[in-house]
Design a protein that fits this description.
By secondary structure, the protein is mainly alpha-helical. Strand 1 and strand 2 form a beta hairpin. A two-stranded antiparallel ribbon has the order 1-2. The two termini are 31 Å apart. The chain contains seven helices and two strands, in the order H-H-E-E-H-H-H-H-H. Helix content is 59%, strand content 9%. The protein has a single domain (2-138), classed as Metalloenzyme, LuxS/M16 peptidase-like (Cytochrome Bc1 Complex, Chain A, domain 1, 2-Layer Sandwich).
């Protein structure tokens, strides 16, 4: 999700914020629990821009599915994720939180996470993108609005 909407270098940020000026910020995230999960895109925009932003989000997802990702995007995303993983060592509380989550969810250690991350390929990313596309086709889009 970092490549799609994980910061100022992401596709959504570049297209929707920098190129078109329709939002202040935009992000895409994946949230997973033991037996369920969801993907979401979050942004704030004027009501008159909502349809355009939603269309751009769908277009960017479709472009990623059709054209794939670049080597640069993959390496940049992996570097960003490594930095995020290593940041847990900044405080004992963060490290404890990660260890507790690993125990609760039965997931791997930080070291194993880095090993998996290092081995991640473009094909792995595209497998996830294809499943996101399938999920978009099989699920609802929920939009919450505030304002006029």
């Amino acid at each position: 999700m970092d490549i799609l909407g994980g910061g100022a270098s992401s596709r959504l940020f570049k297209e929707v914020r920098e190129n078109r000026g329709l939002v202040y910020g935009i992000s895409a995230r994946a949230i997973y629990d033991r037996d369920c999960g969801f993907n979401f895109v979050s942004f704030s925009t004027r009501n008159k821009n909502l349809d355009e932003v939603l269309n751009i989000v769908q277009e960017e997802i479709n472009l990623m599915a059709k054209n794939g990702i670049s080597d640069y995007e993959l390496e940049s995303s992996k570097n960003q994720e490594r930095a995020s993983v290593y940041s847990v060592f900044d405080s004992p509380a963060s490290l404890l939180n990660v260890r507790m989550q690993a125990e609760y969810y039965g997931t791997s250690s930080i070291e194993e996470d880095i090993e998996i991350l290092n081995g991640l390929t473009k094909d792995d990313v595209m497998f996830c993108v294809e499943n996101i596309i399938k999920g978009l086709n099989d699920s609802q889009l929920i939009v919450t609005c505030r304002g006029e």
